[in-house]
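Researcher: Go.
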Amino acid sequence: MNMTYDLADINSDENVLKRRLKNNLIYSGVSYMVFGAWSVIRILMSVTMTSGMYEYFTEDIDIVGISEKTVKIGIAVILAVMFMIMALFHLYIGTGAVRYAKGRKMRLLYPVVVVFAIIFTATSLPDYFGNVEINGPDTGETTIAAFFVDLTVLFILIDIMYSIIRLKMLKSSSSKRNAGTDNAG
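Model: Structure:
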């Protein structure tokens, strides 16, 4: 099988842009998965390392007739499920971006999930400014660092959505152009 390529076509502005957008999707998808793993680890460390965390979770619960061990196990199970959901959410968005960049079909719900993540991340950013406690468990420096991490995550999500939209536009314009040349010939 002799495969020849037209170098002018490979290096056309449109193909270069497609490759760049696909690379953006791959890098952003992997980055979002890494930030997801970091988020799970950060919250897990916060829950396990903070003294009084059990009391924090049980202060409003009336646990008459239930042993303390049962309540602790229940809290651990709920936290584990929350961590799994969080990890799977990040994995879904990250792998979806990588899969689409590699030419696989995008699931119909995927862009909706990415937009939801963008909205959720963007609306959670102002919470950092009311949460800075100088002598609390979350010092001002860690709050500022977490703010910039979440700002980076927001940028990654916007980059994923932008790259998807641009690739779809490029694919549709090139398919229309190819359909026009097929009909002309």
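Model: The CA atoms of residues 132 and 141 lie 9 Å apart.
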